[in-house]
Amino acid sequence: MKPDDLKPPTCWTLARRAERMNASVIREILKVTERPGLISFAGGLPSPKTFPVDAFAQACAEVLHEDGSGALQYAASEGYGPLREAVANMLPWDVDPAQVLITTGSQQGLDLVAKVLVDSGSRVLVETPTYLGALQAFAPMEPEVVGVAADAEGLDVADLAAKTKGARFVYVLPNFQNPTGRTTSEPRRQALVQTARELGLPIVEDNPYGDLWFDAPPPAPLTARNPQGSIYLGSFSKVLAPGLRLGYVIAPAAITSKLLQAKQAADLHSPSFNQRLVAKVLRDGFLDRHVPTIRALYHAQRDTMLAAMEREMQGMGVNWNVPEGGMFLWARLPRGMDSAALLSKAVEKNVAFVPGAAFYASEPDPRTLRLSFVTASAEQIDIGMKALAAAVRENLPSQAC
Amino acid sequence: MKPDDLKPPTCWTLARRAERMNASVIREILKVTERPGLISFAGGLPSPKTFPVDAFAQACAEVLHEDGSGALQYAASEGYGPLREAVANMLPWDVDPAQVLITTGSQQGLDLVAKVLVDSGSRVLVETPTYLGALQAFAPMEPEVVGVAADAEGLDVADLAAKTKGARFVYVLPNFQNPTGRTTSEPRRQALVQTARELGLPIVEDNPYGDLWFDAPPPAPLTARNPQGSIYLGSFSKVLAPGLRLGYVIAPAAITSKLLQAKQAADLHSPSFNQRLVAKVLRDGFLDRHVPTIRALYHAQRDTMLAAMEREMQGMGVNWNVPEGGMFLWARLPRGMDSAALLSKAVEKNVAFVPGAAFYASEPDPRTLRLSFVTASAEQIDIGMKALAAAVRENLPSQAC
């Protein structure tokens, strides 16, 4: 394959996998949403109000004063010992700090998992729909990605079982999923783990949003029920700040050792300075005080968005769910509408969202859309939802009028 | 492939590429060198004396005060605009900031280059010997790595031409190379670029050490002579601090767009906080004042090591080179000796180095060793070299006595 925009003769030959790499749809939409005055329900950006800037400023001063040379030096690929211990202690099952690998965001965890477990043509099972970033992280290893049916309670376990043969793993995001906001129910978790065990199917569990529950914590992680058959990915991006790029992976020992080798080859280690900052900020139960403030804010924002939708979307045949945590709400337009076509009309009215099609491994539902309720303010949510409803109303297909 | 240390029955199947991943020899040696009292010439760690801790402390306070929310938020995969501009301005040829991709250390640049350019079985040419981390970064993409002969002036261009057919690129580290410390001469650079152009062979140029020259700057980069046929990798690890994990890649536009897509899939972006810190520290020509202090320190350390070697290694048939910059010196034991066997004897005498064999794509020279002159102090260099010479003396093969 030769890149299109280099004039021949060119000396470059791209790898076959480069054909599978594409600019993210979300990335392109986010460029549009940088327009001043545009209200965005598109991005997956945590509210900057939740970033503990003062705590980080104090941690910077302390870390550099106490051992600046150590914080700025090369460090072990596994991660900073005290941070690995803090992660092991945070998790609700018995985790040995030696199993904790600190990653450059949980996105890197997905890259490492794919490198270690996916050969060209390997089958990988994902939810329908699923996290776009996971599809992107897996793509360079050239898997056959197969979508498994899902409903409001999570994966359809019978469909999962039917598609398991030859699969290297199933990738699931059980809590307040990106993009749908849905949570896998307790009975579905039990059925999923039982089926995975019986069929010898490894589970890759991604849990960036699990701490952001509103009324009650979600059921226990899949990995807690099946630690030898699961890899667990976590992140500090939603409970502290994404700009530090710190996440973690927990895996069985033999898998951890391979993930570690892949990690070393990928970037030697995640920034030692950032790891020490987070370890410093986490001490004295900081998250126990901080995370409830994020939950309260996002809960209120969700309620504002639900109220605005009920007020503005009446009688047009738009459906949506009620997420019990996280950052996203999933909506579906009436028959005959296409959310990608709606987006340009919405942007004309100064509001943006992400069309759902990008989140499907195959056969996208063009009527779906993802709405973030955490980045825009309450006032913006009211104004933006009025504009979005107007765009829907003006573009309703004739048979739906 | 099933991992050895998981008891069957196991549900896990590793990717084929996982067989090529191994714990780094250097990593294993570095564990030994953590022993208190051991003098290490092994690590490639910059001297912590060179880290501008105060400048970073001030930058942390300013960055978090001026726009803490922005510094802690998700950011563009390309990198922070002002940092990309600073990199473009630092380089000695005409670089558009749009060509600059900020990476999580230059190690990540190697991972992205391999993902975008290397298919399973693709030929990749490297120097003999070459940077171990590059071999590790390329390995997951399953290349056929072919070593090209080299002498004190750099790559043997005739051998390069003979091995070029089907190669995706040649990877070169022209300045104060890791592991040998050698610099590719001006005539050899001209011949290398001419041959690469004639044969349509892309060059991947890695330059982490180029600023660390002692008496005179090295000749112009290969990429400056052949920008459409080259990818250039740079790093802030040796001129500021490695613990921030920031490097950069410069490539032709069509390659940059693919590297960017691979970057986004790998870790979304490098830490926005760290990028703003470095952009802040770099302002007002900081490197123009700071880097000369690193050069002076490393120059003095090199001289100390050379003097110690001349004093201690007399008459044993050990050879070594005189690097004109960087961090490493390359030595060769007399015939019949093996540096890996010598290492355990040296460690008994409280001194460590890296056996050279790990740096060869094939047919290692077991007599070679890499010595870092920057991590140990001058006093430690004197003591350590005396101990190393004693270890050599006690283990000279009988025919050499």
Write up what this structure looks like.
The structure is a homodimer of 401-residue chains. Chain A contains 13 helices and 15 strands. The model of chain A is unreliable at 1-9 (pLDDT under 50). Chain A folds into two domains: 24-51 and 288-395, Aspartate Aminotransferase, domain 1 (Alpha-Beta Complex); 74-286, Type I PLP-dependent aspartate aminotransferase-like (Major domain) (Aspartate Aminotransferase, domain 2, 3-Layer(aba) Sandwich), CATH 3.40.640. Helices cover 41% and strands 14% of the residues of chain A. The first copy, chain A, is globular. In chain A, the strands form four sheets. A seven-stranded mixed sheet of chain A has the order 2-10-9-8-7-3-4, with helices on both faces. In chain A, strands 11-12-15-14 form a four-stranded antiparallel sheet. A two-stranded parallel sheet of chain A has the order 1-13. At the A-B interface, helix 2, helix 4, helix 5, helix 9 and helix 10 of A face helix 2, helix 4, helix 5, helix 9 and helix 10 of B.
Labels describing this entry:
Aspartate Aminotransferase, domain 2, 2 domains, alpha/beta, four-stranded antiparallel beta sheet, Aspartate Aminotransferase, domain 1, disordered N terminus, homodimer
Overall domain count of chain A: 2
Determine and state the CATH class of the largest domain in chain A: Alpha Beta
Largest sheet of chain A: 7 strands, mixed
Oligomer: homodimer
First-last Cα distance of chain A: 48 Å
Low-confidence stretches of chain A: 1-9
Largest interface: which pair? A-B, 92 and 94 residues
Portion in beta strands of chain A: 5-15%
C-alpha Rg of chain A (nearest Å): 22 Å
Count of beta strands of chain A: 15
What is the fold named in CATH at topology level of the largest domain in chain A? Aspartate Aminotransferase, domain 2
The CATH architecture designation of the largest domain in chain A is 3-Layer(aba) Sandwich
How many separate helices of chain A?
Answer: 13
